[in-house]
Amino acid sequence: MSCPIGCYDCCMKCLGGVPYCSLVATLLCFSGIALFCGCGHQALTETERLIETYFARNLQDYITLAYLIQYFQYVIYGLASFFFLYCIVLLAEGFYTTSATKQTFGEFRSTLCGRCLSSTFILITYLLVVVWLLVFAFSALPVYFFYNMDTTCHTITVLTETPASINQLCIDARQYGLLPWNAMPGKACGMTLSTVCKTREFRLTYDLYIATFAGAGITLLALLTYMVSTTYNFALLRYLGRKGIGTRC
Questions:
Q1: pTM of this prediction exceeds 0.70
Q2: Which of 122, 116, 126, 96 is nearest to 238 (CA)?
Q3: CA neighbours within 13 Å on the CB side: how many for 101?
Q4: What is the pLDDT of residues 10-36, one digit of tens each?
Q5: In the chain, what is the straight-line distance between the N-terminal and C-terminal CA atoms, in Å?
């Protein structure tokens, strides 16, 4: 009977050393970044296709937009790699500041290194939260653009019996900074706009941008969870000092 009891105590000890907050934040960060980067990359590709097909006739009219889209896609590759590594490091830091690690490496060394690591990650994570708030707000702009298009198309569908009123309903890509003001036609009106809204490309791009926005929100939530976790670990390590009591978050 001693073996099962020993196994149970061992399992409880291992589970007690798991940094659950950091683990949840890591899962949120992985899922959020995967959604943001994957859907965002494809949404940018579909946006270029829509602009080229329905809003611009000459290559020179949207060449700047095409370069910006390519640049943002490279940024997405970098973000995916950075956040993958950073989440792994933060999860390791969460394990490092648990009581199981303190018992392994010694009280003074663990506490001293834990304070240094926690304070460093608090600063980095805080800066990332500020930057990602801007990314989160920026990712809402294309959702707003496509929402306006969808709303305008719904209005056109309702007013199909009055063609004169329909032709006055337009979406001008130049007003949103997607194209220069001399781009032709630069806008879609009336039934042409309604046709655009019924295409598979429009619906797909709209849904992809919504998923990208959701991914940015999930990543922001993960970063906030990381910040709470690292702040808790740092505060508790500082308070406990050399008492040898482990921390877990």
A1: yes
A2: 116
A3: 18
A4: 655 555 556 677 788 889 999 999 999
A5: 33
